[in-house]
Write a structure and sequence with these properties.
The chain has 181 residues and is of the alpha/beta class. It contains five helices and 15 strands.
């Protein structure tokens, strides 16, 4: 491994060890030159630093929650080159673009050659294999549009009260108890 490769590994290890999302967000902003683009107001909770940040563009006000992966390449070429004792299969690379005002749920994987529009919420555990348009809520495997961003915002505006943990638990058990009657 050359010096640049060693520095890259050390940077990713250091990033992984940062204890808070605030520290990780600041690290991303400090190293934004490594990315195609990093907008303002980014929240980076994930401990995973992308393998190819120069192939990733992220807009303003983007929330990247725990364990989100940006996958800008595949390694099938390695298996094929070994299987066929050749070196004709090349690395498959692609870009990822994330618009403005986006929340990407925990455990989401975003594959190469995908654009996520602006004003989008991606549900936790999704695998984004195709473009996601502006102004929507999307989730699933594969990720697909499941609702309107504006409808989601309207429903969330209705949640205005704060409850104590006991009240949340009481509500939880009451709903579960009714469900099984």
């Amino acid at each position: 491994m050359n010096e640049a490769g060693i520095k890259s590994v050390l940077r990713k290890l250091f990033f992984f060890c940062l204890p808070t999302q605030t520290m990780r967000s600041r690290f991303i902003m400090k190293h934004s030159y490594e990315f195609r683009h990093i907008g303002g107001g980014i929240f980076w909770q994930s401990r995973l630093y992308p393998a190819d940040p120069d192939l990733i563009s992220i807009g303003d006000n983007v929330f990247i929650t725990a364990d989100v992966s940006f996958i800008t390449h595949d390694t099938v070429r390695n298996m094929l080159n070994i299987k066929y004792a050749t070196n004709i299969f090349k690395r498959n690379l692609g870009c990822i673009e994330v618009g403005d005002n986006v929340m990407i749920g925990s455990g989401t994987k975003i594959l190469l050659n995908v654009r996520i529009g602006s004003n989008v919420i991606i549900g936790a555990g999704s695998i984004v294999t195709k473009d996601i348009p502006d102004n929507c809520v999307a989730a699933g495997i594969p990720c697909k549009v499941i609702g309107s961003f504006d409808d989601f915002v309207s429903r969330r505006k209705e949640i205005i009260e704060y409850k104590t943990p006991k009240e949340y638990w009481d509500e939880f058990y009451n709903k579960k108890h009714k469900k099984y009657q």
